[in-house]
């Protein structure tokens, strides 16, 4: 409650005191503008070329772009709880944007047919069905020092590369593990974002009237470890959690205070809401729940030697289990991340990250743990490595992203290759490989979900 009141007060003060134009931030260190999408992904040269030149004499309406894609994948081994196909869908994305000096309109919606889940009723908060509404919002500029974005939007902040500490916005882990494009890891939020700019410091405040959860692993597409059953489960044990769903009561607040100090961007973060994926179980029904959560964090990002260094930390305060004595609810945690990336050779870039989760109240957790339930480590360590190589006039993109946990003794590898055939067509192949010593660790639980996939995309 104290954090929520602080969010409200600081928003009101910001509106009254902030002035001046938005400062220009160094490339890659933030700002209010979204980065341009890569060629073939729904914007840039392709959309402009088609709009101006037309296809067979037909011109797209101004502000409209998108892509059509077919993507399919198969599992590399038998999983008794899931289908042999990991993904199989046809997707059409339409992106409409109407810029203006004081008001901008943006709508991004995907229309898809997915025979793997075979569920076609639209469920917008879960991203299932024939329609996935990605964005539908208004950007208002009531003054030179403030932007207001109202509606469904995709939000992100923090410094991690596919690791998230202070980014408490929805993620779609099913998309990530089954082979969809990386952009689908981020799920949409329904809320209001206010951005306030000054020459001294900048502030983002985000209010979500009704809790937006992750699109978490629930067994419909990816099998998982079930502590309740003591085994892997999937379509035979679909997770149906008790969701916080009272508007304005089960709401979320998030804030970021940031500025540049020399060539470095420093930021402070706050969040008041719920664990984004199920973080506990109801004692009576046994159903998964989303306990209340507060997060306080900080980050720094800037140049070091020939590359870019990132530092981030966060204190996860589990409000429903403050002393760690309830084994049915996630304990509080301290999380840390350090990363470094640089160009290793011509058109070859590399990055490495070291991430730690430190469970608080570990002694109380162990004493209260029911017999037979899998025990978590006090410290979980994860190392990531990313390598990207561009070839053939940068039309061929070869990449690999590796997660390795020396504490969990498991690993996750994401190889991918994409080739741009021309200004419109792109082909892609890749895989998701999980290896683990134990069946209950984070990546080890998914070892029956190893898959390869291929995609063809037409951008317009």
Radius of gyration: 22 Å
Helix-strand string: HHEEEEEHEEEEEEEEEEEEHEEEEE
Largest sheet: 18 strands, antiparallel, barrel
Q: Going by CATH, what is the homologous superfamily? A: Porin
Q: What percent of the residues sit in helical stretches (DSSP H or I)? A: under 10%
Strand content: over 45%
Calculate the mean pLDDT score and round it: 89
3D shape:
globular
Overall CATH architecture:
Beta Barrel
- Distance separating the two termini: 47 Å
CATH class: Mainly Beta
Topology, number of strands: 22
Helical segment count: 4
Total number of distinct structural domains: 1
In oligomeric terms, what are we looking at? Answer: single chain
Structural class: mainly beta
- Do you know the CATH topology? Porin
């Amino acid at each position: 409650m104290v954090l929520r009141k602080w969010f409200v007060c600081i928003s009101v003060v910001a509106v009254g005191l902030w002035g001046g134009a938005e400062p220009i931030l160094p490339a890659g260190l933030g700002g209010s503008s979204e980065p341009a999408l890569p060629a073939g992904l729904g914007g840039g040269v392709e959309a402009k070329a088609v709009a101006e030149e037309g296809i067979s004499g037909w011109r797209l309406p101004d502000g409209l772009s998108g892509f059509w894609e077919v993507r399919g994948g198969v599992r590399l081994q038998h999983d008794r709880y899931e289908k042999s196909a990991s993904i199989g869908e046809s997707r059409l994305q339409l992106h409409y944007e109407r810029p203006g000096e004081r008001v901008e309109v943006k709508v991004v919606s995907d229309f898809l047919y997915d025979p793997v889940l075979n569920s076609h009723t639209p469920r917008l908060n879960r991203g299932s069905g024939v329609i996935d509404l990605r964005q539908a919002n208004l950007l208002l500029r009531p003054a030179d020092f403030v932007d207001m974005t109202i509606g469904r939007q995709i939000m992100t902040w923090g410094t991690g590369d596919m690791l998230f500490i202070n980014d408490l916005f929805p993620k779609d882990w099913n998309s990530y593990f089954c082979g969809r494009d990386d952009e689908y890891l981020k799920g949409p939020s329904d809320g209001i974002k206010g951005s306030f700019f000054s020459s001294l410091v900048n502030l983002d405040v985000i209010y979500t009237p009704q809790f937006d959860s992750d699109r978490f692993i629930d067994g419909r597409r990816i099998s998982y470890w079930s502590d309740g059953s003591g085994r892997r489960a999937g379509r035979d044990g679909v997770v149906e959690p008790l969701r916080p769903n009272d508007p304005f009561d089960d709401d979320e607040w998030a804030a970021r205070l940031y500025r540049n100090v020399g060539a470095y961007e420093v930021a402070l973060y706050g969040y008041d809401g719920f664990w984004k994926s199920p973080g506990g179980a109801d004692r009576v029904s046994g159903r998964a729940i989303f306990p209340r959560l507060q997060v306080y964090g900080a980050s720094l990002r800037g140049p070091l030697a020939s590359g870019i260094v990132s530092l981030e930390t966060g204190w996860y305060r589990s409000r429903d289990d403050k002393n760690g004595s309830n084994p049915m609810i996630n304990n509080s945690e301290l999380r840390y991340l350090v990363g470094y990336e640089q160009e290793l050779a011509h058109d070859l870039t590399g990055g490495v990250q070291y991430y730690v989760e430190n469970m608080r109240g570990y002694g109380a957790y162990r004493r209260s743990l029911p017999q037979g339930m899998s025990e978590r480590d006090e410290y979980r360590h994860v190392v990531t490595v990313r390598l990207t190589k561009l070839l053939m006039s940068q039309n061929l993109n070869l990449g690999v992203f590796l997660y390795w946990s020396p504490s969990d003794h498991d690993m996750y590898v994401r190889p991918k290759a994409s080739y741009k055939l021309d200004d419109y067509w792109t082909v892609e192949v890749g895989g998701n490989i999980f290896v683990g010593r134990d069946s209950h660790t984070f990546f080890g639980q998914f070892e029956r979900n190893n898959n390869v996939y291929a995609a063809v995309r037409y951008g317009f």
